[in-house]
Write the structure tokens for this entry.
Amino acid sequence: MKIIYFTTTGNSLAVARAIGGELVSLIGAASGTESVISDPEAMGLVCPVYFGELPKPVAEFLGRVRLEAPYRFLVLTCGNTPAFAVNAPGGWDYVASVRMVDNYFPMFDVAKQIATLPAKHVHEQVERVCADIAARRHGREGVTLFGRVAGWWMRTFPLSAKAYMNFYIEDDKCTSCGVCARLCPIGNIDMVSGRPAIGERCLTCGACYHNCPSGAIRYKGEKSRVQYRHPGVTLGDILGAMGDGGRG
């Protein structure tokens, strides 16, 4: 079984590991020339939900590459609702979501999200998904009423194209290590005079913000100053997910 995953703070990687199989980073797969990726047993995709939809890199990947296998599944990690992401095209045999820490710092107090994590029973959710996939069960999670309302709200008030301008660097903390530039899944951060410069294509995915070793990357209006990375995932794991140890 082959699982393609997209992760920036480790939630989706942790779930992909729990499901098991051969793990393939979407960033690495997207850099290839294949138009078809196949597996004789099963093929899965595990990724987070961004603003009620698939992350742009994931949607673009699925628009270019066809996944072929006798059994195909999609598992979405989110904070509260996968909204319309469960309707992702692809003819999936199984679609499910796992509610975890919502680390979207412009909207949520990450410290409170972490504190309320036990109430989400993440372990039980992951066990259920793993059992369903192991048994090759079919079924597609539907859009709940809350998900529909939240999804339409996010479509009505989408992320501003100027959101990248809200990032700023605390110079007294920045060590010019360049980790943020290596972490960006779309190569949107350049090091200029030893300081990161975030470009206008920013997804606000949180890879640079949450994984900065010195906590130097901040965001105007952030709901807390707490960084989050899944406790079972290391910075090296995230860098590795970006291909060859990360982008230089």
The first strand starts at residue 2 and ends at 5. The first helix runs from residue 11 to 19. Residues 108 and 223 are 6 Å apart (CA to CA). The chain has nine helices and twelve strands.
